[in-house]
Design a protein that fits this description.
Keywords: ATP-binding, Kinase, Nucleotide-binding, Serine/threonine-protein kinase, Transferase. The chain is an alpha+beta fold. Helices cover 34% and strands 27% of the residues. Helix 1 (16-31) runs antiparallel to helix 2 (39-57) and helix 2 (39-57) runs antiparallel to helix 3.
Amino acid sequence: MADHLEASVTLPSDPASVAAARAYAVGTLTEWGLPADADAADTVRLIVSELATNAVEHTLGRSPTFTVHLALDHDERVRIGVTDSHPRFPRRLPAAVQQDNGRGMVIIRWLSAEYGGRVRVRPTREGGKTVSVELPWPVRAASATDRDEP
């Protein structure tokens, strides 16, 4: 595998784009060697779903598009990021018992911690932000001895 791989897609800030973002992310990581049925793929689906949903729902119409970025470094770490053009950083909303939203970043932080990763939020030069999650790459690179075994 290459030392560094990157991919990205820009989608309209529309609820239908959340499914497209999930499919793009998992499809790309599958091309890079992550089995689509692996637990890590399910984790990526959920993280991308939450980040994309936030980019669609919480930008208040100030971000007509959002971009999903993926990067794999040295078969060690994978970065998943979503960039939108709204300047407000995500914040935890008070979660009432009956409330259906406001827990996305809590879920993302919990999943990241569970897999030994981290979450970052950074401003963009254009005035928006990127929320990124870095996780250990769960696919072990095949060694020469693995390839020689029947």
